[in-house]
Amino acid sequence: MFDPLDGSSNIDVNVSIGTIFSVLERVTSPEREPDLSDCLQAGHRQVAAGYIIYGSSTMFVYTSGNGVHGFTLDPTVGEFFLSHPNMRMPERGKIYSVNEGNRSKWDKGICDWIDWLKSPDNHSGRPYSHRYIGTLVSDFHRTLLKGGVFAYPADSANVDGKLRLLYEASPMAFLAQQAGGAATTGKQDILQVKPTVLHQRVPLVIGSKGDVEDARRFV
Predict the structure, then answer these.
(1) Can you tell me the distance from the alpha carbon of 87 to that of 62, in angstroms, rounded to the nearest whole number?
(2) pTM of the prediction?
């Protein structure tokens, strides 16, 4: 599964974009041609997933089910070098990432959660800072390194969510899980969602395990 250019609307303004991929083991017999059933598998069946981020540096980040590892391109020699071995997402962060321009279309639970993240509370480290790039790869990459939470919830205009399960949510959920984080639709673990169509869309809350659990309580 392949999203060749995530964040393409940001190209014209020179903001980081990326490529997302997911690898599944075929379920059909090798004696015949592959078919759609080979693609329509739940995320927990992925054998590898990752992304490339094109920004101030070019990085390749992947998992094959044994941790998450990041490689940075050295353009002077044209090679990727292991720069971030065994990447781990902090248990909690201090950043939330969501397009608040959609607030008028959100359910009350999402609004209450965002309001809670912005309310001061020294004990839990709130308020959180808001950062939203608008490229999933970039927002996730920051969350992977610094912790916190990224969300693209369902709303009245996108009742099933907007991000695609097979090309965006599932591969990122696999990476998050392998780095010690979590990902949910708000009701179900993303990696347990069984797709029924190729371009199925889902709500997504992904990031540090503690922050995702907070979102679940509200949603």
Answers:
(1) 10
(2) 0.96
